[in-house]
Write a structure and sequence with these properties.
Two copies of one chain form a homodimer. The first copy, chain A, is built from three helices and 27 strands. Chain A has about 375 residues and is mainly beta. Chain A has a single domain, classed as 5 Propeller (Tachylectin-2, Chain A). Chain A is globular and about 65 Å long. Chain A starts with a helix and ends with a helix. The interface between A and B is large, with 52 and 52 residues.
Chain lengths: ~375, ~375
């Protein structure tokens, strides 16, 4: 009865999804919120705090008079003003951070739909001749709750794209409290790749950037909440181009700013639920047996599920046990259908008063769900 | 007469190549030296020191009785003993570091040539079903000279594969003297990818490993020889999988061990000699105008050439000028033909007494050449 045991280990909230795009105000006029998902999560005193990834795109409809058309025929992409004869229907519109404009800020670009070779098959990206743009631009937004179920979403971003390395967005935040400071690891995306930047905050209101700690290509970074063996530790997930699959590594630091001594931790497992890709999920937390990490795995059908790995308490580079099957799979309608269907993906889990963990997770790259996890039950399933 | 000027800027040594595979003793019985190239270079007192990348492969011919055949049909690669009926001709032989053996060390593997889908088109690699092995395994070897022309090559490696992240080899070293210590950045290759590790030495004899500072995929790392603005600086070249070309970045450190605050520096230039790939070459050196970096660029025909970039002296993240054309192109026969033809690639240059720099460079991924560079003349060509 293994399958039954697995189902008892985790229980979705009846009110799922707990945050939807329509719960979030756009950050500026002319934009609509497409997704509110992949939230960092932390519990502070009696408050549940989410740091949502909010993905926005330009409102469809009319093209403004000052629209800039992206010309990709030139060796370096250039923009030109739209002519009066062009209408919105003929273009894909997307937004980027433009630091070269006289007033630097978020700017919308228009790309002709009839451009030969334009690849729109992935709903998340626009590809043309080796160049990639994103269909939406993400920022990070705080949401707060007393019960962990009903959230008030801030009207404005907590952290929005502001640097060259964040030109295409800030994504997938993980929040770790270390001492009295909150550390944030978030994906920074630009034409130069997908890397991970750090920031810190004394109060979860003001965030100070610490720069790109993990250059491209690296995402799914989470900082451990305490020093281990005299050093801070980060889970990260480099994705090499030429040799090797995406694997999970540990990096070490003495100041939470500079990182090194990187070591391979674990790889995808051929033939299993995490055969194609893996990456860190929630911030690792202490259990009597060591460190428990809830991570995502992707199979050959591109189905994103959640499983766990138990790491040694003193030497987190030692893998002690791992989920033979996922503890959460995309089964509910809101997990199966959305911008990218068949995805459950966590960036944070928080302890409940009854000893369970509430796992917040992005569903179908669109909304935020929550499910309560029996940690002891989960540990019993690891092998 | 720009072309003529370029040719006067650099002068190849008449005795090229200065180191060839036949000048290097194999590191162990049963191996042959295939390449001696991509050498780090430094001048210490009156001595020219090269740290060569030496690539070795198993001697062809008979298969030993205890040969291990690699079975790639299993989900995880396994080895099995050869049967008496199998002969060397039917197999591709290559060596790896085997840390799981009862006596960990370099071990040879045999792969059936008739394996369906086996890809041997790149002379440097063996590819099968998403897995990659290298046809040769590299270690680092010291060579010394009084005149910078005639080198005595050490009989044994200075640094050979010893960790999981070096399983497929140690490659492309760059040597930087910082204070009284020599720092070494070298490529560490394994099934987990191509990263860069650091080591240090008080005397260029004993090397102490500092671990993987630049996780995969990252190579072409060179440390600047002094602090700039109170921090150490490294050139590095991440190669992302999903978004962006291989670009050169700067990273910063306070202890030469842990790195962060990574920032994009420069990209390939469409339509130019460095359109497809770029990467750091020699260790950057001071010129009156700033920092001069000799780097490699690759064009759409996969031709590797050398050019230069001038960086601001106080803010090395500022690119001041760059070579419109290469200062060294693969033209000599030993540069055009070898394991990988049409390649000139530098890991080090040293100052000569007449003010020129002697650039040591790997040619055709096989041998080591040298050419003397008129730095002032080169600077005049940058735009």
């Amino acid at each position: 009865m293994a399958a039954l045991t697995d189902h008892l280990v985790i229980e979705r909230l009846a009110t799922n999804p707990v945050v939807r795009p329509q719960d979030v105000q756009p950050s500026r006029p002319g934009m609509e919120v497409l997704c509110a998902f992949n939230a960092g999560a932390i519990r502070v005193d009696d408050e549940f705090v989410l740091l949502l990834r909010v993905a926005e795109r330009p409102l469809s409809g009319s093209m403004p008079d000052d629209a800039m058309i992206l010309d990709l025929h030139a060796p370096e992409p250039k923009t030109r003003p739209a002519t009066g004869a062009e209408s919105a229907a003929g273009f894909v519109a997307f937004s980027v951070l433009d630091l070269t404009a006289s007033t630097p800020g978020i700017a919308t670009r228009y790309l002709p739909r009839d451009l030969p070779g334009l690849d729109l098959t992935d709903p998340r990206s626009i590809r043309y001749a080796g160049q990639t743009y994103l269909t939406s631009i993400s920022h990070l937004r705080l949401a707060r709750s007393r019960d962990g179920v009903t959230f008030r979403v801030d009207p404005q971003p907590a952290l929005a794209p502001a640097t060259a390395e964040e030109e295409f967005g800030c994504e997938d935040p993980r929040l770790t409290r270390i001492g009295d400071t909150f550390y944030l690891a978030y994906t920074a995306v630009s034409r130069y790749g997908i890397g991970t930047a750090l920031a810190r905050s004394p109060d979860l209101r003001r965030f100070e950037r610490l720069g790109v700690a993990f250059y491209p290509e690296n995402r799914d970074v989470a900082l451990f909440p305490e020093q281990i063996g005299g050093r801070y530790v980060a889970l990260h997930r480099p994705q090499p181009r030429h040799i090797g699959p995406p694997t999970m590594w540990l990096g070490y630091s003495t100041d939470l700013h500079l990182w090194g001594d990187h070591r391979f931790l674990m790889a995808p497992r051929p033939g299993m639920w995490d055969s194609k890709r893996i990456g860190g999920g929630a911030v690792p937390f202490r259990v009597p047996e060591g460190w428990l990490e809830l991570y995502h795995g992707v199979d050959e059908a591109d189905r994103y599920c959640l499983g766990a790995v138990l790491l040694d308490g003193d030497q987190p580079g030692k893998v002690l046990a791992r989920s033979p099957r996922p503890f959460l799979e995309p089964e509910a309608p809101f997990e199966r259908e959305g911008l990218l269907g068949n995805v459950v993906f966590t960036c944070g889990a928080v302890p409940l008063d009854d000893g369970r963990m509430r796992v917040y997770y992005g569903a179908a790259d669109s909304v935020t769900g929550a499910a309560d996890l029996d940690v002891k039950g989960l540990l019993a399933t690891l092998t």
